[in-house]
Amino acid sequence: MFTGIVETTGQITAIETQGTNKSFWISSPLSGDFKIDQSVSHDGVCLTVDELKDGFHRVTAIEETLRKTNLAGWTEGGQVNIERCMIMNGRLDGHIVQGHVDATATCIEKKTLNGSWEFRFRFPDEFAHLVIEKGSIAVNGTSLTCFSVDSNSFTVAIIPYTYHHTSIGRVEEGSIVNIEFDILGKYVHRWMQLKP
């Protein structure tokens, strides 16, 4: 479990394909601290560290993960957001993020304002009930707040720190991002569906 507060970014240094799986070698300031079998959020996707070597770490995505996230489009040299799992006796600075991506979304607008940025994303219509005005959402693993919400799009505002310390600054119109909707909203929706 994560908070959506990105600790650092990593760079994809190599990609290996084995059958329908893809493994990614990543270099980050935290790679040397990782342990085999540790769960780490990579652009909002919870992946298991399966190999460590010379300050690099490797994670592997299976076919299901490649199909539901933007990982199939990752390329060598790409930048990814990195967050280690939450420490349960610490502060929850973002919101509860599982690292289980619900869908991908497309950036349909990027606005540069005087000291901040706004990004508008379009997501699949079937998730409209999970996005609310001023609600939490994870975009590439970053905890953000939605506004200007409609049936299949929302806007987020980005402060300079987030723009320069996460991968959001590399998102452009047409970019595909990973989206995880708020777990509390998902549970409430499920409860309402089952309620007689």
Explain how this protein is built:
By secondary structure, this protein is mainly β. It folds into two domains: 8-84, Elongation Factor Tu (Ef-tu), domain 3 (Beta Barrel), CATH 2.40.30; 103-194, Beta Barrel (Elongation Factor Tu (Ef-tu), domain 3), CATH 2.40.30.20. Helices cover 12% and strands 40% of the residues. It is built from three helices and twelve strands; from the N terminus they run βββββαββββββαβα. The chain has helices at residues 63-68, 160-165, 183-194, and strands spanning 8-18, 21-27, 39-42, 45-53, 56-61, 79-84, 103-112, 117-122, 136-139, 142-145, 153-158, 176-181. The strands form two sheets. A six-stranded antiparallel β-barrel has the order 1-2-5-4-3-6. It is globular and about 50 Å long. The two termini are 31 Å apart. The relative contact order is 0.20. The model has no long low-confidence stretch (mean pLDDT 96). It catalyses: 2 6,7-dimethyl-8-(1-D-ribityl)lumazine + H(+) = 5-amino-6-(D-ribitylamino)uracil + riboflavin. Catalyzes the dismutation of two molecules of 6,7-dimethyl-8-ribityllumazine, resulting in the formation of riboflavin and 5-amino-6-(D-ribitylamino)uracil. InterPro entries: ATP_synth_asu-like_sf, Lumazine-bd, Lumazine-bd_dom, Riboflavin_synthase-like_b-brl. Residues 1-95, 96-192 form the Lumazine-binding domain. It is an enzyme of class 2 (transferase).
